[in-house]
Amino acid sequence: MGGGIPAYLQLMRMKNVLLASITVPLGAQFATGDTWATEQLPEVISQILAVIFFIGAGNSMNDLKDVEIDRDAHPDRPLASGSITLDNARRFVYVLWTLSVTCVLIGAYFLHADGKSPIELIAIYATAVTLMTTYDHGPTLKNTGLKGNISISIMVGAVILYGASSVGNLWTPLVWWTAALVFFANLAREIIKDCQDMEADEGNRTTLPMTYGLVKSRMLAYVIVMAALVCLYIPYWKGPFEFNQLIFQTPAILMLITLNRELAEGRDYQAASKIRIAMLLGLIGFIVPMQL
């Protein structure tokens, strides 16, 4: 395939891919504690790879779909700049999907060999594939504004659930609160990104800012951020953490509650970046008390 390795890594959007893949071992950690690292490491590694290839394929498909938009909005993207041809990008997507499905089947085999059910793992993956397909193809939820934002955010939040299912322990409450945190934070971020790209999306998508305006959309995004904060708080109220351990979430909380400044000033790029950092800090804030 033509194009250098850096171009293909950029096509996969490795920053997003790596951030998402980190949540697989986090999901395993929230589900079982540290035991996964010694008892089920192969299962978790196989699903980290499955997620890397899955999200890389999805991001590449997204760029294939949006190549004309990106020539104006993001001309430095590999397809928009011509550093990777469309045919080579399609071949790359096929390779990524093949690798991802193979890793899922390996993980399912490991779970079955350990006497655990692989059904949850396969079900979550199949749901994510369905959402990914309908997002860019099918009814093209990406073009429907809030429905598309919700769809992609479910996929992002589901990675935590997927990590828990990779060790056969999906039903731990902390796993679900963490997934909800990631879902709401990403949903707010998607709405803000639509505010940022409103002019470039004109004529191609019908997004929330186009329908209700920038001010109302940013206000809704901030309300959704507050929902993420509630999910951040509940594990310290209901357990498994002690309430005084909420101090470990101080950086994430401060970043989220001060987000209104960027939104009020229309600095959408900075706001979206701030949410991504706060999301990562929130996950770290859950990990630290587990080690104490």
In the CATH scheme, what's the topology name of the largest domain? Tetracycline Repressor, domain 2
Beta-strand residue percentage: under 5%
Overall outline: globular
The CATH architecture of the largest domain can be named as Orthogonal Bundle
Overall mean confidence score, pLDDT: 91
Report the count of strand segments.
Answer: 0
CATH class of the largest domain: Mainly Alpha
- Structural domains: how many: 2
Distance between the termini: 48 Å
Helical residue percent band: over 70%
Outline the low-pLDDT stretches.
none
Tell me the series of helices and strands, N- to C-terminal. Answer: HHHHHHHHHHHHHHHH
Backbone CA Rg: 19 Å
List the helices and strands and how they pair.
Elements: H1 5-12, H2 14-32, H3 35-39, H4 41-65, H5 67-73, H6 78-81, H7 86-113, H8 119-136, H9 146-165, H10 173-196, H11 198-201, H12 208-212, H13 214-237, H14 250-257, H15 259-264, H16 268-290
Helix pairs in contact: 2-4, 2-9, 2-16, 4-7, 7-8, 8-9, 9-10, 10-13, 10-16, 14-16
Write a brief structural summary:
The protein has two domains: 170 residues, UbiA prenyltransferase (Tetracycline Repressor, domain 2), CATH 1.10.357.140; 121 residues, UbiA prenyltransferase (Four Helix Bundle (Hemerythrin (Met), subunit A)), CATH 1.20.120.
Task: Provide key terms for this protein.
Tetracycline Repressor, domain 2, 2 domains, 292 residues, 78% helix, Four Helix Bundle (Hemerythrin (Met), subunit A), globular, mainly alpha
Overall description:
The protein is mainly alpha-helical. It has two domains: 1-170, UbiA prenyltransferase (Tetracycline Repressor, domain 2, Orthogonal Bundle); 172-292, Four Helix Bundle (Hemerythrin (Met), subunit A). Helices cover 78% and strands 0% of the residues. It has 16 helices and no strands. It has helices spanning 5-12, 14-32, 35-39, 41-65, 67-73, 78-81, 86-113, 119-136, 146-165, 173-196, 198-201, 208-212, 214-237, 250-257, 259-264, 268-290. Helix 8 (119-136) packs antiparallel against helix 9 (146-165) and helix 10 packs antiparallel against helix 16. 46% of the residues are buried.
